[in-house]
Amino acid sequence: MNSDMPFVSEIVLIGGGHAHALFLRQWGMNPVPGARLTLINPNATAPYTGMLPGYVAGHYGRDDLEIDLVRLARFAGARMIFGHVTAIDRAAKRLSVTNRPDVAYDIASLDIGITSDMPDIPGFREHAIAAKPLGPFAARWQAFVEARKNGPVCVIGGGIAGVELALAMHHRLAAQGTPTPVSIIESGDLLTGTAPATAQKLRAELTAASIEIFENARATSLQADTITLSDGRTIAAQFTVGAAGARPFGWLENTGLTLTNGYVSVDATLRSLNDPAIYAVGDCAHLSHAPRPKAGVFAVRAAPVLAANIRADLIETARRSFTPQKHYLKLVSLGRKEAVADKYGLAIDGAWAWTWKDRIDRRFMDRLNHPPKMQPPVAPKNAAKGVSKTLGSKPMCGGCGSKVGANVLDTALSALDMPTSPDIITATGDDAAVLSFGSVQQVISTDHLRAFWDDPYLMTRIAAIHALGDVWAMGAAPQTLLAQFTLPRMSEPLQADWLRECLAAASDVARETGAALVGGHTTQGAELTLGFTATGTLKTAAKTLARAQPGDILIVTRPIGSGTLMAAEMAGEAQGDDIASVLQAMATAPVKTAEILAQVAHSLTDITGFGLAGHAARMAFAAGLSAHIDSAAVPLYSGAETLAANGIASTIAPANRAALGVAMPDTARAALLVDPQTAGGFLAAIPPDALRTTIASLIDAGATATQIGHLTPWSDHPIVVT
Prior knowledge:
33% of the residues lie in helices and 24% in strands. The protein has 22 helices and 36 strands.
């Protein structure tokens, strides 16, 4: 987002596996100036395989299991793209990513894991879940446990992974008082390839847990509550997990990369055998120089070599070789807090082994989820008096969090001699100016955002939707968009790629909203800044602030708290899933919501820089009314209230509170009422007789429509918060 050095290279990490997570941490400690790092992963978090059996058994919560990739990406200064890579154009060096334009790369690395999906078994995808990828399986298992079903559970696959899962499931269900039959189906012999001593101990554990084993049996079809075997027998199962036949993702076959059994073949430096611009690590890679079984330990050990070799490619130094160990420690969970330690063919079990494993796993997760704290900005030596105070103790927020405060803005505008024209119906104060051209009325407004997310495509989407909010807030239909893009310094090829992403986002939003992208301006600057001038057309009177009526009900259409969440994300304090959720909301155009409100609202405004309370106060003041807000009724984004309670706030929040000039409850919820929102929802004044149908219509349209207060005749202050 902000770099002292021009960008000249694009490094893209495909997948958030263990090696890439460690890569991000190492890069954050020592980045290569001039190289931009990107992580592409479908989710904000990635489950840690080592703790999955403990999670299934109930010893860990979901948060314990998840590597927060958003936090790691922020620490590394990397952009994060939420999506699946579906293809690689190696000639053009572009990656096809779901729901967005292609992503360019100079060097790419694959760490996408494997899948245990079983598409060849009829009914598997409808009635079962693969153990890998881990995220969907963990979610499905948690839902099953919470439903407290006592129907049978079955694991397809009798290797160490399948046995470990079966023991964990048995323990969890028995511990919560719903003892459930558990079975294992294995097409060959159980625990093939496992050291005899370890296999013997695990078989004894299965027997003690009364887990039924079907060896040399193959599942041929799945129904809603039964599994049919190749010999005609049926097994009852309400929850079935596939833990056999782990395989590579099919899209790799179309990349043209050299593969071994579908896995990307790499040399000792972890580079593809036939493409020096592509690396592969973890389970998706085949170590052609030293083949090894699929195990997380190799991904962890490969991470420093991967980081060193990508660095070597960038600065043209010698690369390193990866030599995986032949023997490694296996710690196999037994369901309860005991484990078997396996190495060199020896097997020792007991509670001490679980404690050992738990300590190793927690240390690993702590290392990833709690990277070193980012240092606050420091005034240079001999800086002018007042620099430190103005600089503050944290970086300035982006989006609406970086706006000029309301008091400063109002002071400046009060001294302005505004010209008048018969064509101008409304000017300053409302969301947009209204211009009259005979029988036609047009609204016009402009907005720009300091980037808070290091992804040109996503930030441009948010900026365009944010700008159009002023058009929608006047009850108008979007007409045109004019773009203003400021890019950081970078090489010309990267400029072309960034602009391509920005323009694609602007075009996508224009198409979705019925507007036309008609031009714009580009320049270079210190950081990514994106803005739009938006126009719209009116068929009825504009929904100005002054049109609000006494007795109107106040509703909002989205949660609030985005400013606090993004401020926390900049500081590495937010939860990745919360950030992913709020970004998705900001990047969603509220077309249908705006259309509904344009028909019924007396007055309408989008909630942006001044926060919900600030915009409610401005609406009430313009109409000569008082707004009464019930803070307990206001919907909040997940995680926002906890962060606010911990004292985290956006840069402009103190100025927003000061501008209100009224007492507010001393609560975290009330603090969020002055939180600046970027691409926020609408605040609408609705006549009481239309409230019920309006909220129902908005909810059907996907809005979080909530009644949060009402308007009364003026009573000392424009806003009252309870």
